[in-house]
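agent> fetching stored inputs for the 5-O-phosphono-D-xylulose docking request
agent> found them:
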Amino acid sequence: MSQYLELKREVYEANMELDKRKLVTYTFGNVSQIDRKAGVVAIKPSGVAYEVLKPEDIVIVDLENQRVEGKLNPSSDTKTHTYLYRTWSEIGGVTHTHSTYATAWAQAQIAIPCYGTTQADYVYGEIPCAAVMSDERINGDYEEETGAQIVECFADRSPLESPMVIVAGHAPFTWGKDAAKSVYHAVLLEEIAKMAYLTKTLTPSIGDLKQGLVDKHYLRKNGKDAYYGQGK
Ligand SMILES: O=C(CO)[C@@H](O)[C@H](O)COP(=O)(O)O
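agent> prediction call returned; pasting tokens
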């Protein structure tokens, strides 16, 4: 009997929410959650379609990416997830998708500007775009380096201020206090990315939302030190 049944169930349900929200196609994307006390991460198995995924398929790995429990291979993005968990102690769940609008901004290599209060309610300004990976990094361990790219993107801001990032040439990653919250942020990111694209299409010359409005909306919901959107 697995000692991680509850953790696996939570991660299974978070992955199925991605499918329900139509943020993934076939086997795109993956969700994970860490149990910091046990020192393990539960993550979607690689290459398994959502319609056949079962709770017992969820793979348990340690923070050095070694499989602890499970017959299937962990997601090919596991090293990116564990890199973020090792670096940011304040996060408990990570989601990766290839959702259409967020991925389009990532492929265009453009940070998503804050054009409106909808975005400001959840992100303190723009949604960052992690730089294109350098050649030496590409030749390294790609998934590990993707984690490094994301962390570098937050060198001068807290991951609490933007629980989401788009990775240039790749796609989005989001995080939160647990798997469910990271999926919630993935849903919000796709909606915000779509709104921003449509806004820019309607008015190409549109500028960013005034900082005073960004402050008012972000701080009203999140506060200076609040854990972004914690249970709100
Ligand atoms: O980013 C990618 C592929 O570009 C991956 O996220 C796949 O979309 C899902 O891979 P697995 O989790 O099934 O290994």
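agent> quick read of the result: Residues 225-232 have pLDDT under 50 and may be disordered.
agent> awaiting further instructions
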